[in-house]
Target: PIG-L domain-containing protein
Amino acid sequence: MTVSRQLARQEAAPALLRLHRSLSRLDSVLHVMNTGAHPDDEQSGLLAWLRFGRGLRVTVACSTRGEGGQNILDGARGAALGLLRSREMEEAARVLDADVAWLGHGPDDPVHDFGFSKDGDDTFARWGEDRIVERLVRAYRAARPDIVIPTFLDVPGQHGHHRAMTRAAQTALALAADPGAFPEQGLAPWRVAKFYLPAWSGGGGTYDDELPPPETTLTETVAGRDPATGADYARIGEWSRARHASQGMGRWHEVPARSWNLHLVDGSQESAITEGLPATLEELAALAGPAAGALTEAARAVSAARRAFPDRALLPGALA
Model:
């Protein structure tokens, strides 16, 4: 890392902001995974809200390195572009305080960005459907998300990579929970509690979906602004998207998005994405049996630390 980049990173993350972000990770015990096919497919504004507004842990699962995409910066193509876009994805995730689960490993891997496709079946033929499903099962079991949200719908008119990734993400749900599936992974089964599809068309207007989106069962609505920066959550999402510089991402919207419509597969109407799940330490303690006392005490310590912020001298004692 160059000195200028080190200085820029430190300037962008002052101590109190880092401390606030660390404390906010304790607000929820839930974990959401957003699946997509390329770096920049992530739903950045929604993820910013879920991470910083609701306190959920966030992971972006990405099937390719974007090596078959465009590049407005220079002449890098193929493996070089994949390397660049991988770094952009990591930096974009850093803004969102998110993890990245890579499913593809570059142009020599069958799961790679081979250019535009309108057919999910064609994408599976190139990637190997069983291969990408197995990698998603591994990602679910390793990361253990409670909630999974693909960015795109599997409908005609949508990019074939997106269609394949969404279909694979849904197929992998039952397999990840099945002890008999892929035992060679050496990972314990994991059951995802909720699987949402976007209840909007075109991945946010980028593509011409030929079928309408599914019914909205949840409108996840922002409450206020990010207390650490004073920014709208969707604006933080654009800070993240601007890291995808090779794709010309990052926009200034005069009226940032304040809600996202989602469809809970095999579910009913909800008022919040956390509905029906133990979202906090207190709620988890109510279900924990013998561990309830320890979880309750941990919840008290977290509350005390939150009250002590921004006095860094008081925080260690609160968390002791």
Summary: The first strand starts at residue 31 and ends at 36. The mean pLDDT is 94.
